[in-house]
Specification:
The protein is an alpha+beta fold. It is about 45% helix and about 20% strand. Strand 3 and strand 4 (about 125) form a beta hairpin.
Length: about 180
Protein backbone atom coordinates (compact mmCIF):
# COMPACT_ATOMS: atom_id res chain seq x y z
CA UNK A 1 0.00 0.00 0.00
CA UNK A 2 1.43 3.35 -0.98
CA UNK A 3 1.03 6.64 0.78
CA UNK A 4 -1.82 8.96 -0.26
CA UNK A 5 -0.96 11.57 -2.89
CA UNK A 6 -1.18 14.31 -0.27
CA UNK A 7 1.48 12.65 1.91
CA UNK A 8 4.60 14.76 2.45
CA UNK A 9 7.75 13.06 3.72
CA UNK A 10 9.22 15.10 6.55
CA UNK A 11 12.89 15.00 7.35
CA UNK A 12 14.18 15.36 10.89
CA UNK A 13 17.46 17.02 11.79
CA UNK A 14 19.21 17.80 15.03
CA UNK A 15 19.88 21.48 15.65
CA UNK A 16 23.59 20.81 15.17
CA UNK A 17 23.07 19.18 11.77
CA UNK A 18 20.59 21.85 10.67
CA UNK A 19 23.26 24.53 11.23
CA UNK A 20 25.58 22.68 8.80
CA UNK A 21 23.08 22.22 5.97
CA UNK A 22 23.29 24.41 2.84
CA UNK A 23 19.99 26.19 3.43
CA UNK A 24 18.58 28.71 0.95
CA UNK A 25 17.40 30.84 3.86
CA UNK A 26 18.88 30.83 7.33
CA UNK A 27 16.49 30.56 10.27
CA UNK A 28 15.39 33.93 11.62
CA UNK A 29 14.80 34.26 15.35
CA UNK A 30 11.76 36.51 14.85
CA UNK A 31 10.06 34.05 12.51
CA UNK A 32 10.82 31.13 14.84
CA UNK A 33 9.33 33.07 17.76
CA UNK A 34 6.22 33.95 15.71
CA UNK A 35 5.79 30.30 14.70
CA UNK A 36 6.15 29.15 18.33
CA UNK A 37 3.51 31.68 19.40
CA UNK A 38 1.15 30.57 16.63
CA UNK A 39 1.55 26.93 17.67
CA UNK A 40 1.12 27.60 21.40
CA UNK A 41 -2.04 29.63 20.83
CA UNK A 42 -3.75 27.07 18.59
CA UNK A 43 -5.57 24.67 20.94
CA UNK A 44 -7.04 22.60 18.09
CA UNK A 45 -3.59 21.94 16.63
CA UNK A 46 -2.07 21.25 20.04
CA UNK A 47 -4.94 18.93 20.92
CA UNK A 48 -4.28 16.83 17.83
CA UNK A 49 -0.70 16.06 18.84
CA UNK A 50 -0.20 13.09 21.11
CA UNK A 51 2.16 14.15 23.90
CA UNK A 52 5.39 12.23 24.23
CA UNK A 53 5.99 10.37 27.46
CA UNK A 54 9.27 9.49 29.17
CA UNK A 55 11.84 8.39 28.40
CA UNK A 56 12.28 11.37 26.07
CA UNK A 57 15.08 10.74 23.65
CA UNK A 58 15.85 13.77 21.43
CA UNK A 59 13.01 14.38 18.97
CA UNK A 60 15.13 13.95 15.84
CA UNK A 61 16.20 10.51 17.09
CA UNK A 62 12.63 9.63 18.08
CA UNK A 63 11.51 10.49 14.55
CA UNK A 64 14.40 8.56 13.02
CA UNK A 65 13.46 5.45 15.05
CA UNK A 66 9.78 5.87 14.27
CA UNK A 67 10.00 6.28 10.51
CA UNK A 68 12.44 3.68 9.32
CA UNK A 69 14.54 2.21 12.12
CA UNK A 70 11.87 1.09 14.58
CA UNK A 71 12.73 -2.62 14.46
CA UNK A 72 16.29 -1.96 15.64
CA UNK A 73 14.95 0.37 18.34
CA UNK A 74 12.45 -2.24 19.53
CA UNK A 75 15.21 -4.86 19.71
CA UNK A 76 17.48 -2.53 21.70
CA UNK A 77 14.59 -1.56 23.98
CA UNK A 78 13.78 -5.23 24.50
CA UNK A 79 17.39 -5.96 25.45
CA UNK A 80 17.45 -3.02 27.90
CA UNK A 81 13.98 -3.55 29.40
CA UNK A 82 13.29 -7.27 29.00
CA UNK A 83 9.93 -6.49 27.33
CA UNK A 84 8.78 -8.39 24.24
CA UNK A 85 9.26 -6.69 20.85
CA UNK A 86 6.29 -6.94 18.49
CA UNK A 87 5.19 -5.79 15.05
CA UNK A 88 2.11 -3.69 14.34
CA UNK A 89 0.30 -5.13 11.32
CA UNK A 90 -2.40 -3.05 9.67
CA UNK A 91 -5.52 -4.90 8.60
CA UNK A 92 -7.24 -1.63 7.61
CA UNK A 93 -6.02 1.92 7.22
CA UNK A 94 -8.14 5.02 7.94
CA UNK A 95 -9.82 6.51 4.87
CA UNK A 96 -7.43 9.48 4.87
CA UNK A 97 -4.59 6.97 4.41
CA UNK A 98 -6.26 5.17 1.53
CA UNK A 99 -8.61 2.95 3.57
CA UNK A 100 -6.89 -0.15 2.21
CA UNK A 101 -7.64 -3.52 3.79
CA UNK A 102 -5.29 -6.45 4.05
CA UNK A 103 -6.32 -9.92 5.15
CA UNK A 104 -2.74 -10.83 6.02
CA UNK A 105 -1.74 -7.53 7.60
CA UNK A 106 0.80 -5.05 6.35
CA UNK A 107 3.83 -4.43 8.56
CA UNK A 108 3.78 -0.87 9.85
CA UNK A 109 5.94 -0.49 12.97
CA UNK A 110 7.79 -2.29 15.78
CA UNK A 111 7.65 -1.55 19.52
CA UNK A 112 7.75 -3.41 22.84
CA UNK A 113 4.86 -4.54 25.00
CA UNK A 114 4.92 -3.81 28.72
CA UNK A 115 3.46 -6.54 30.98
CA UNK A 116 0.56 -4.19 31.88
CA UNK A 117 -0.50 -3.92 28.21
CA UNK A 118 1.07 -0.54 27.47
CA UNK A 119 3.31 -0.15 24.43
CA UNK A 120 6.63 1.66 24.13
CA UNK A 121 8.51 2.94 21.12
CA UNK A 122 10.85 5.84 20.44
CA UNK A 123 8.06 8.35 21.29
CA UNK A 124 7.66 6.88 24.79
CA UNK A 125 5.11 4.77 26.63
CA UNK A 126 1.54 4.83 25.34
CA UNK A 127 -1.22 2.51 24.11
CA UNK A 128 -1.11 0.33 21.02
CA UNK A 129 -4.11 2.28 19.73
CA UNK A 130 -2.19 5.59 19.97
CA UNK A 131 0.72 4.08 18.04
CA UNK A 132 -1.68 2.76 15.39
CA UNK A 133 -3.34 6.18 15.03
CA UNK A 134 0.07 7.76 14.48
CA UNK A 135 0.43 5.61 11.35
CA UNK A 136 -3.14 5.98 10.07
CA UNK A 137 -4.06 2.43 11.07
CA UNK A 138 -7.75 1.82 11.83
CA UNK A 139 -7.60 -1.93 12.52
CA UNK A 140 -4.56 -3.98 13.40
CA UNK A 141 -2.94 -7.09 14.77
CA UNK A 142 0.21 -7.38 16.88
CA UNK A 143 2.72 -10.13 16.19
CA UNK A 144 6.01 -11.09 17.86
CA UNK A 145 6.81 -13.56 15.07
CA UNK A 146 6.37 -10.93 12.34
CA UNK A 147 8.72 -8.60 14.23
CA UNK A 148 11.33 -11.38 14.23
CA UNK A 149 10.91 -11.79 10.47
CA UNK A 150 11.47 -8.06 9.96
CA UNK A 151 14.61 -8.10 12.14
CA UNK A 152 15.90 -11.19 10.33
CA UNK A 153 15.39 -9.51 6.95
CA UNK A 154 17.14 -6.34 8.11
CA UNK A 155 20.12 -8.19 9.57
CA UNK A 156 20.52 -10.14 6.32
CA UNK A 157 19.90 -7.30 3.85
CA UNK A 158 21.65 -4.39 5.59
CA UNK A 159 23.61 -5.72 8.58
CA UNK A 160 25.88 -2.68 9.01
CA UNK A 161 22.97 -0.22 9.06
CA UNK A 162 21.03 -2.45 11.45
CA UNK A 163 23.95 -2.71 13.90
CA UNK A 164 24.52 1.06 13.69
CA UNK A 165 20.83 1.74 14.46
CA UNK A 166 20.74 -0.86 17.25
CA UNK A 167 23.88 0.53 18.92
CA UNK A 168 22.62 4.13 18.72
CA UNK A 169 19.23 3.10 20.13
CA UNK A 170 20.83 1.22 23.00
CA UNK A 171 23.07 4.16 23.84
CA UNK A 172 20.12 6.58 23.81
CA UNK A 173 18.05 4.21 25.93
CA UNK A 174 20.72 3.84 28.61
CA UNK A 175 21.15 7.61 28.77
CA UNK A 176 17.50 8.65 28.72
CA UNK A 177 15.93 5.80 30.72
CA UNK A 178 18.44 6.53 33.49
CA UNK A 179 17.54 10.25 33.43
CA UNK A 180 13.84 9.48 33.93
CA UNK A 181 14.37 6.71 36.49
CA UNK A 182 12.75 4.09 34.24
CA UNK A 183 14.27 0.80 35.20
CA UNK A 184 15.57 -1.36 32.39
Amino acid sequence: MGWPDAYVRTRFYSEEKLKKLPLLHLPEAEKISAAQTAIRTNPIYLGSITPRTPPLIPAHHAAEFTFGRCAAYAEALSEVSGFEPVALLATRFHAAYGGAKSALGDYVHSFVMHPDGRAEDAWGITTIHEIAVRFGVAEFKVSASDHKIVVNNLTQNSPEQYVEAFDLAKSLLFTHRAQTNINP
